[in-house]
Amino acid sequence: MKRLLPIVALVGLSGLGINLAAQTPSQTPSQTPSTSDSQASPSAQSPSAASPNSSMPQSQTDASTSQQSARAFEGKIQKSGDEFVLQESATQTSYKLDDQDKAKQFEGKSVKVMATMDSATNKLHVVDITPSESKY
Fold this sequence. Notes:
The chain is an alpha+beta fold. The chain contains four helices and five strands, in the order H-H-H-E-E-E-H-E-E. It has helices at 4-23, 32-38, 40-69, 100-104, and strands at 71-80, 83-88, 94-97, 110-118, 123-131. Strands 1-2-3-5-4 form a five-stranded mixed barrel.
């Protein structure tokens, strides 16, 4: 009987300590995992809800990065084999164009091409093609 009383007291105090630790999660970092375990449903919903939100800004960031890297190329649209290319006037470099339908409308004309360049393939991903005011 004398042994039973201290064991019951120890178990009771341990339970009280665990309960207090669960109620005050901001006191120590080691208590934070126990609170997230006890509140698994809200915690599980928050990251899943945050994932689409965090991926959307990443997509927007990727899109804005593409737009930021888009620049103007000026030159003349010419036919090279079966493809239309932009012969840039400043560097005399030919760039393949990914939008052949747009390029066809400007064959032989001086244009300004807003595009991003894929340096691995030397291809311009066309954003817009407009007639150039200067003649090359």
